[in-house]
Structure formats: structure tokens, C-alpha cells
């Protein structure tokens, strides 16, 4: 297990060796002809953030008559009324804004985007999730990239509004920064495949249609379309200098549901496209990096297996090289620490904050491995599963927020933490001090996630005041039909 994880560590080192953050990034000139743009806003039960999203999009700077705004609203609660009121305000200002509602949620977000695309007027299609607040110049800064007719998609970098809200949000933000600051930057600069992240990006409509359109046979329609488009010959552009703020999940249940969807979806895409990727006429470096990207979540089962094996190794009394395991562990762990540490340094986080953030991020990743292992294996099965939205808080008071729904046995990670702690006791008894820092990291990670999930489960199970269902689910919306509960 250590040797396999060391391979993932070496892969991160290869990314770090090619990473260049300080280089001057291209800023595209003002287009000779401004292309028409459709901004799509897929929302579902988003009463806490829908209004501010629509208002932010209404402030986007773009030539009059060339911008269309679509709210793809699948909601069944009071989000509908909020959306209608905000769209009416935009229309009163002369903006081309409309709401599209479906009679069912077939295909979930992918289905909504596909339905909106059928009646969209734009040559380019920009997508924002409900918790994003795009800056006014977002479109103006990026559409120039499409003067190159081979460019199919431009992705901006995510920033995190609630980064410092808690230790959990700091750790989540750090994990995302590793992806957006180092992985995306290095892959783009090196001419490798990278992906659209489902939001804060602009697509050429022709690229979507020519690549097979939005498909909902995986839980990560964005990753799926990204690879199909690049395999079809479209070029992607990453613009790390253009930032779109959003929020990260504020509780462990929301974060776990988000990460489960991403892990299962990435394995579904790997199962769907690996054969096509290997047969493609692409350089070997592109294929290898793409395979490493799509299979990256396999690291979670490896971490879990390692966690279960470590106490046995620590208690083993037979003869063995004393430094063998710690050396391999270091090859797997140190590149991860450097990876996230460099991402925080690149965005200017103070060094004291970086230490806390990086350690918290690594511990969180370790603690998540139990649930993520389940997600990885579910992604290898043929069942698609249900697209579970991530609840957003926005600026709403707690009484107005949606509740996150957990899955699995709450606090099960504490059992794993206890097992590893026992291994630590055996290691101390045998004088194997070199294993203690690694065991401590695993105890901290599983213990932290276990305690957070148990606390949230206990809070959710407490009796609530009257009106509990109305606060958590919202009143039905007469304009939408009830959603089907089965997977399409």
C-alpha cells in the first residue's frame, strides 16, 4: 500500500516540477465582434442564494443585445417565487432574462443544461452554479479567447468566500486550491487535458454539440463532456487570473455528499472513456496524465487499506528494515504537503495560516477515505445513482437554511481512529518511534471526521420546533411538478 501511494506522491512531484505560477498570463484583446453569450444558471432548491446569484449576473458587463440570461429552475419550493421576482427585475431593466422550468428532473443538472441549450440564442454558453458571485468583468475578460476557433472552453479559477469561517472550510478551500492553482495550471501550461469544473466557465456552443452534448450517464457531466470534447480535438484554456468567488460546504455532511458525487462520477467517467482515451491519437504524456487524473480517487481505498494495516505493521515483531516503512510513507506524504503548501503560498496565504491549513487539509483527506472508498466502488458499478445537490448557506439565517443529509453510519471513522490508536500504543511498547507521526496523522484525520459527523447527526436528531419541515424543504412551487425519485 505504501509503495502504491508513493507512486501517487511521485506524480504530485512531477506536477510541482512543472508548476509556474508567477509567469505573466495572457489577457485577450477586445474582440472585433462581440459573440452572443447565454448565461445559464441551473438551480434546484436554492432559496438561500438564488437572489444574489441572479443579481450578480444582472451586473455583468457586456454589449447590449448580445447577452441572454437563462435560469434553469427545477425547484419545488419558494425558490420559484424568488427566481420569478428577480427575473422580473432584470427584465424591467431591459435585459433578456427568462426562466425555464421542466416537468421533471430527468438528467438532473445535465438534463437542465441540455434543455436550456435547445432554446439558447448564444454562440457561447457560460454556466454558474447557485453559490457563485461572478465579477462584473467576467465575460469581458474571457470571451476574447474564443477568437481562436479551436478553443472550445475557458475555465476561470474558483475562490472561496467563506474560507476562514472554520477549520473545516479552511481545509476544504486548501484541497480545492491544490486542484485549481497547481493541477489546472500545470496541465494547461504543459498542453495536457484538464476539465471544466461545472461552473465559472464558458463553452463554445458548437463544441458542446459536436462532442455529443450534455449526457447524464455519469454523476459528473462536466468531467465527462470535458474529456469527450478534448478527444474530439477542441482546445481548452485555463485563466487562473480570472477569479469567481463561491462558498465551500459549511458542514461535514454537505462536504461528504459533494465529495461522494465527485469521486463516484470520476470513476464513472474513467469506466466510460478509458478505452476511447487509450485508442485516441494523442501523445503518450497526454494519455498518462489523463489516466492519472481520472483514477486519482483510487488513492482513497489505498489510504483506507493502509490505515487498517498500519496497526498490524506497528505490532509486528519479526525482523525487517527499521526505516523501510517510514521512508516509503515519506515519499507518499511529503509531496502532498508540498503540493498544498505551494498552492497556499502561490495565492498569498500567510505562512502561519499555511501550516494549519495544509495539515488540516491532509487530515481531512485521510478522514474522508472511508466514505470515499465506498463512492469509488459505487462508481465502478453500472448504476448511475442520484445527483445529490450540495446545500448552500449564503447569507441566510440558520432557520432559513437547508439541512444536509448524511449517509452511512455516523461516527464510524472513530472506530478506525481507535484501531490506529491501538497501533500507536503497540509501536510505543516496541520502541518504533518513527511510525508515531504517521499514526498520529491518521488518528487525527479519522477522529476529526468521525466527531464532526457524529455531532451533526446528533444535532439533526434533536427535536425541532414546529415548522421543521417547512424550513428544511420549503413550500411546494405550483409551477413545477414533483420530481421523480428514481434514477433516470
List keywords for this structure.
alpha/beta; 7-stranded mixed sheet; 17 helices; 488 residues; disordered C terminus
List the helices and strands and how they pair.
Blueprint (H helix, E strand, L loop, with lengths): L1 H17 L18 E7 L6 H9 L8 E7 L5 H14 L3 E5 L7 H11 L5 E4 L10 H5 L8 E10 L6 H23 L11 E4 H6 L10 H11 L3 E12 L5 H28 L4 H11 L4 H17 L8 H23 L4 H17 L1 H12 L31 H19 L5 H26 L6 H6 L15
Structural class: alpha/beta
Order of helices and strands: HEHEHEHEHEHEHHEHHHHHHHHH
Number of strands: 7
Globular, elongated, flat, extended or rod-shaped: what is the shape? globular
Strand order of the largest sheet: 3-2-1-4-6-5-7
Biggest sheet overview: 7 strands, mixed
Radius of gyration, Cα only, in angstroms? 23 Å
Mean of pLDDT: 89
Q: Helix count?
A: 17
Low-confidence stretches: 465-488
Roughly how many Å apart are the termini?
37 Å
In helices, the fraction of residues equals 40-55%
Q: β content, as a range?
A: 5-15%
Description:
The chain has 17 helices and 7 strands. It has 488 residues and is of the alpha/beta class. Strand 1 (37-43), helix 2 (50-58) and strand 2 (67-73) form a beta-alpha-beta unit. The longest helix has 28 residues, at 252-279. It is globular, with a radius of gyration of 23 Å. It starts with a helix and ends in a 15-residue tail after the last helix. Mean pLDDT is 89; it is low at 465-488.
Amino acid at each position: 500500500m505504501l509503495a502504491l501511494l508513493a507512486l501517487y506522491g511521485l506524480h504530485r512531484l512531477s506536477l510541482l516540477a512543472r508548476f509556474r505560477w508567477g509567469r505573466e498570463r495572457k489577457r485577450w484583446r477586445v474582440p472585433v465582434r462581440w459573440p452572443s453569450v447565454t448565461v445559464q444558471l441551473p438551480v434546484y432548491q436554492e432559496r438561500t442564494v438564488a437572489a444574489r446569484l441572479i443579481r450578480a449576473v444582472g451586473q455583468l458587463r457586456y454589449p447590449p443585445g448580445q447577452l441572454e440570461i437563462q435560469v434553469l429552475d427545477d425547484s419545488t419550493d419558494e425558490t420559484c417565487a424568488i427566481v420569478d421576482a428577480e427575473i422580473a427585475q432584470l427584465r424591467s431593466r431591459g435585459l433578456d432574462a427568462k426562466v425555464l422550468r421542466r416537468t421533471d428532473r430527468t438528467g438532473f443538472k445535465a438534463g437542465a443544461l441540455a434543455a436550456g441549450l435547445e432554446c439558447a440564442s448564444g454562440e457561447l454558453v457560460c454556466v454558474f452554479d447557485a453559490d457563485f458571485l461572478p465579477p462584473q468583468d467576467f465575460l469581458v475578460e474571457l470571451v476574447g479567447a474564443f477568437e481562436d476557433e479551436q478553443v472550445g472552453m475557458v475555465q476561470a479559477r474558483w475562490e472561496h468566500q467563506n474560507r476562514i469561517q472554520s477549520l473545516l472550510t479552511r481545509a476544504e478551500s486548501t484541497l480545492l486550491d491544490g486542484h485549481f492553482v497547481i493541477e489546472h495550471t500545470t496541465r494547461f501550461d504543459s498542453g495536457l487535458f484538464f476539465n471544466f469544473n461545472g461552473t465559472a466557465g464558458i463553452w463554445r456552443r458548437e463544441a458542446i454539440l459536436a462532442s455529443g452534448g450534455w449526457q447524464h450517464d455519469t454523476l459528473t457531466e462536466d468531467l465527462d463532456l470535458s474529456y469527450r470534447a478534448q478527444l474530439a480535438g477542441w482546445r481548452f484554456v485555463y485563466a487562473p487570473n480570472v477569479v469567481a468567488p463561491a462558498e465551500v460546504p459549511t458542514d461535514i455532511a454537505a462536504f461528504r455528499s459533494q465529495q461522494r458525487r465527485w469521486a463516484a462520477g470520476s470513476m464513472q467517467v474513467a469506466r466510460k472513456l478509458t478505452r476511447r482515451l487509450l485508442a485516441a491519437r494523442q501523445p503518450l504524456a497526454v494519455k498518462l496524465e489523463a489516466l492519472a487524473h481520472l483514477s486519482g480517487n483510487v488513492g482513497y481505498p489505498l489510504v483506507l487499506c493502509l490505515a487498517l494495516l498500519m496497526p498490524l505493521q506497528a505490532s509486528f515483531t519479526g525482523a525487517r528494515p527499521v526505516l523501510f516503512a517510514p521512508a516509503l510513507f515519506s515519499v507518499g506524504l511529503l509531496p502532498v504537503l508540498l503540493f498544498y503548501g505551494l498552492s497556499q503560498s502561490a495565492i498569498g496565504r500567510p505562512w502561519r495560516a499555511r501550516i494549519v491549513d495544509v495539515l488540516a487539509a491532509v487530515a481531512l483527506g485521510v478522514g474522508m477515505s472511508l466514505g470515499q472508498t465506498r463512492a469509488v466502488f459505487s462508481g465502478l458499478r453500472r448504476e448511475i445513482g442520484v445527483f445529490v445537490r450540495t446545500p448552500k448557506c449564503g447569507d441566510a439565517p440558520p432557520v432559513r437554511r437547508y439541512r444536509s443529509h448524511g449517509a452511512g453510519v455516523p461516527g464510524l471513522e472513530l472506530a478506525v481512529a481507535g484501531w490506529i490508536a491501538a497501533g500507536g500504543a503497540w509501536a510505543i511498547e516496541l520502541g518504533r518511534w518513527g511510525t508515531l507521526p504517521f499514526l498520529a496523522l491518521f488518528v487525527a484525520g479519522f477522529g476529526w471526521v468521525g466527531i464532526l459527523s457524529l455531532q451533526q447527526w446528533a444535532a439533526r436528531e434533536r427535536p425541532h420546533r414546529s415548522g421543521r419541515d417547512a424550513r428544511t424543504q420549503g413550500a411546494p412551487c405550483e409551477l413545477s411538478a414533483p420530481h421523480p425519485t428514481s434514477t433516470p
